[in-house]
Amino acid sequence: MSPIDEASFLQWLLHGVPSRAALPDAAAWPQRHPILVLALVAYAVWYRRTWRATTLARAWGPRWLALLVARFNVILMRICSANLKTLRPPDSGVDASKRHLVVWHPHGAYTTMALMHCGLHTVASTPLTWFPAVAPVLFALPIFREVLLLLNARSVEPRVLEKLARAGCTIGIQPGGIPEQIRADSTREIAVFPPRLGFIRLAMRHGLDLLPVYIFGENQAYDTCGPRGRAFSAWAYRMCHVPIVPIMGRYGVPWLVPKSVDIHVVWGEPVSVGPPNDAPTDAEVEEVYERYVAELRRLFDAHKDACLPPEVAALGLTIIRRTSSAAPLPTTDGSKAAAPGSSKL
């Protein structure tokens, strides 16, 4: 703040600004940066007019622009040496006459490869078009919000998922969410599932076959700084309720360029949930869950040796079923990791 005398500052507080000379810097910046002010106002108006876009059960924006943005993301990752080496759809193909619930793993530190590579798949129908559900807070970031909307991302709120399912859309869900993000580890592969298995209940209510997808290399794109990094992630989430995962990328640079890594996006076989069931019992949900985990593990085991570093592949896939939805942190939720080759129910 520029030096001003006490009387002028008091007058500014109580009665408004009598002259430009008495105007504090903090209040003068709108006059000094009118273009910035106009841009902020214009974006605020745009945001207000498009705030319902996060719930749309159809594509948003011109498809040519969505494809352009998606291809730019892929090119950017190629420049960073995070190349998509494998894109393998289900061996039996995908029945286009049916709608599915795409379930992708792992979450990773920030789902970077899921966004940068799979974003193209959602708008180019390779092998099908789906609407990935993401955290609502991401739509509060200007520009990034529009990128997500163009790539068919929608809010993960239950009411939005129900709307998409009723409209006949194929939905994409990452069931591990924040608990899996906080556990992200470049040295092992973990799949976390919620205690109530809400994604399976959603699929059963609407008769959506579960279609697993594993993104090999997502965890290896960044180093999550070992146990201390995961402890910090848990602490940060407890303090501010926002997942902040410390990561180190290429050349040891934090947060920015991913490490040189090959990405393999491999699809499993659809897991049938039967006809729509408005009120599935817990036993029915558990039966579908067991079949889904079996297919996920089959998919992982069939490709781990070719798609992961040997030391990571040797550890297999660890399945974690959380026991409480109230506390998602690994140090407090009471969940236990199942040994590779088994699953905790």
Q: Secondary-structure map with pairings?
A:
Layout: H1 6-15, H2 25-32, H3 34-49, H4 63-79, E1 82-88, E2 100-105, H5 112-116, H6 118-124, E3 131-134, H7 144-150, E4 154-155, H8 158-166, E5 171-173, H9 177-182, E6 189-193, H10 198-206, E7 209-216, H11 226-240, E8 261-267, H12 282-307, H13 310-313, E9 317-321
Parallel strand pairs: 1-8, 2-5, 2-7, 3-4, 3-5, 6-9
Antiparallel strand pairs: 7-8
What this model shows, in words?
The protein has one domain (43-321). Helix 4 (63-79) runs antiparallel to helix 6 (118-124). With 345 residues, it is of the alpha/beta class. Residues 331-345 have low confidence and may be disordered. The chain has helices at residues 6-15, 25-32, 34-49, 63-79, 112-116, 118-124, 144-150, 158-166, 177-182, 198-206, 226-240, 282-307, 310-313; strands spanning 82-88, 100-105, 131-134, 154-155, 171-173, 189-193, 209-216, 261-267, 317-321. The longest helix is centred in the C-terminal third of the chain and has 26 residues, at 282-307. The protein contains 13 helices and nine strands. The strands form two sheets. The protein has a seven-stranded mixed sheet with strand order 1-8-7-2-5-3-4. A two-stranded parallel ribbon has the order 6-9.
Short structural description:
This protein has helices at residues 6-15, 25-32, 34-49, 63-79, 112-116, 118-124, 144-150, 158-166, 177-182, 198-206, 226-240, 282-307, 310-313, and strands at 82-88, 100-105, 131-134, 154-155, 171-173, 189-193, 209-216, 261-267, 317-321. It is of the alpha/beta class and 345 residues long. Helix 7 links the parallel strand 3 (131-134) and strand 4.
